[in-house]
UniProtKB/TrEMBL annotation:
Belongs to the CutC family. HAMAP family: CutC. The keyword Cytoplasm applies. It comes from Curtobacterium oceanosedimentum. Keywords: Cytoplasm. Its main location: cytoplasm. This is PF03932 family protein CutC. It is found in: Cytoplasm. InterPro entries: CutC-like (IPR005627), CutC-like_dom_sf (IPR036822).
Amino acid sequence: MTPAPAIPVALEIAVTSPAGAIVARDAGADRVELCVGLELGGLTPSQALVEATHETGIPAHALVRCRPGGFTYDIDELALMEREVRTVLRSGAAGVVVGALRPDRSLDEDALRRFVDAARSVSAHAQVTLHRAVDHAADPVATVARLADLGVTRVLTSGGAASAPAGAATIARMVDAAGPVQVMAGAGVRPEDIAALVATGVAAVHLSAKRSVGGAGHGGVLMGSGDDDSGHAVTDPAVVAAARTALDRSA
């Protein structure tokens, strides 16, 4: 019997704008994760931002995260994110990126079920990714073993480490435990790290491929505690292209 051909490892780029999605698309990305507040770990994008990004033609998976900080949410926050799941999918997102933990750092399975049910109520084909809340879980490997039963499509992880390259050994264990759920390596990924991450067996790699532009525009009059006047991030086509090349060479 002829073995089935290997499925290519996908390239996902985190973007914060339609312009970033176009850069990612034209430089060879397979899909994008769309969010705002990337410097905060990412927050839910607006309806208009999802609609405009959808119009670029590249599949966009919208992060649904109502605030920065930890991943333990109260009843009102969960209800809000459940509504956001439906809103971003109705606005053209191909999938959602969600997550929640209990205070003991176990996966909040009830919350995940609510998010999955909300997504599939809009589209039976909506993809659901568990975000890096998994890296804050007490046991990331045991956590991914539960995801197939919850209807989750994939999980984004650094293997519980500060970066995916540092967590590569754990990522390989997560791949073994995940069953049909796709494991995607992300956090601190550079094009030169991709070959080693592909060797863990992941289905995708994720990076922001960003560079900073602007800055020094406020004249010292800052706009909030998180405003350091250093500019804003944009998607760098050279980094996306280098990542694409690295993936193709690892095939």
